[in-house]
Specification:
Layout (H helix, E strand, L loop, with lengths): L1 H18 L2 H11 L2 H23 L1 H44 L3 H25 L15 H25 L3 H17 L3 H24 L8 H46 L4 H11 L2 H21 L7 H31 L1
Helix pairs in contact: 2-12, 3-6, 3-12, 4-5, 6-8, 7-8, 8-9, 9-10, 9-11, 11-12
């Protein structure tokens, strides 16, 4: 008991040290001052909140499904166990019958007859139980409790609010986008780097179009409902520019990843005489982790691009939340993991 109290005191002391240390807040605020890192973190929180909203909404149904699967599995296991017992009893009955037929002693014969009858009773009970259907499940209703419903609504509102905040913050990237749009294309055209030219133009046009759509959606540029009716075209067009940029980046990332995989596989083939599967695993482990992160995130972004490039969309909230979380969650995890290491290194 004293050890647990001492452990709690140590943790409280550490927490107080963090709370009262200016360095702690400097380390946390460092990535938040970078607009790109801030947008990355907010995006993960935004999509993660939406994903949790869907999970909470469907929690009763998921709970019922898991309960049904568990109880069905338990029933079948019990049924299988009954069948094993039944087979054992049948073998025992055959053995008793064989002994019974070969013994002429009347006293032993009567005893074995009783045992045989007892086995018949057991067989009858086991046989009946093996054909019983599973009992009806007392499952909870599909309605959320008031507390869970409040949490679900709060997470949904948080996701919507962060979406607006991210769009507003990205407005301040327009000057840099215009600068890149003016300076980069001539050099890329001269070098005949048409793919990067397309990528640069697309990402530079994406931001202004999204900002116009955001302004129309909020009724800042035109009064609603007129602004709300026209914002859809601007949103879809901005997403198509973004889609073009993502496709180019995903293509480059895919070539980098699989090119390095091919090189690592050939190196492993020369260095060791192992199976193909082991060489593939070795090649995957040797590939640069940052490239894998980019590959996963760009791959996860593609469904979002398709979804927002169409008028009606193709994903539900679960798909948007899941792919959105994957699209930036890995980078966000490593970003804040590094911050955590710095905090431990400097303050512990």
């Amino acid at each position: 008991m004293s050890y647990q109290i001492q452990k709690i005191k140590t943790r409280l002391k550490f927490i107080l040290k963090l709370i009262l240390s200016p360095k702690f807040y400097e380390l946390i605020g460092e990535p938040l001052q970078d607009l790109a890192k801030l947008d990355l973190t907010l995006g993960t929180v935004c999509y993660g909140s939406l994903f949790l909203t869907v999970l909470i909404k469907n929690y009763p149904k998921l709970h019922n499904i898991i309960t049904q699967l568990r109880q069905t599995l338990t029933f079948h296991l019990k049924n299988s166990f009954r069948k094993i017992i039944r087979k054992a009893l049948l073998l025992l009955k055959l053995l008793v019958n064989k002994i019974h037929n070969n013994i002429t002693n009347s006293s032993l014969k009567s005893i074995l007859a009783i045992n045989e009858n007892y086995i018949d009773v057991l067989l009858e009970k086991t046989d009946k139980n093996s054909f019983k259907s599973s009992k009806s499940l007392n499952l909870p209703s599909n309605e959320l409790s008031p507390t869970m419903e409040h949490i679900r609504k709060s997470l949904r509102e948080l996701s919507s609010y962060i979406t607006d905040v991210r769009m507003f913050y990205r407005t301040f990237q327009i000057p840099q986008a215009i600068s890149d749009l003016i300076s980069a294309p001539p050099a890329l055209w001269k070098e005949k780097d048409y793919i990067n030219l397309l990528s640069t133009i697309s990402i530079c046009l994406y931001q202004p179009f999204e900002t116009v759509a955001f302004g129309l959606d909020k009724g800042w540029l035109l009064p609603n409902p007129e602004g709300g009716e026209k914002c859809g075209w601007w949103y879809i067009t901005s997403t198509k520019f973004w889609f073009a940029w993502v496709l180019v980046e995903f293509g480059y990332t895919t070539m980098d990843v699989f090119g390095q995989l091919h090189t690592n596989f050939n190196d492993a083939k020369r260095l060791e005489k192992s199976s193909v599967s082991k060489r593939i695993i070795s090649a995957i482990k040797s590939t640069d982790g940052d490239k894998w992160v980019k590959f996963i995130e760009h791959f996860s972004t593609l469904p979002l691009c398709v979804h927002w490039s169409t008028e009606d969309g193709c994903l539900d909230d679960l798909g948007v939340g899941l792919f959105g979380t994957l699209a930036g969650g890995v980078s966000t995890f490593f970003l804040w993991k590094e911050i955590g290491h710095k905090i431990v290194k400097e303050l512990v």
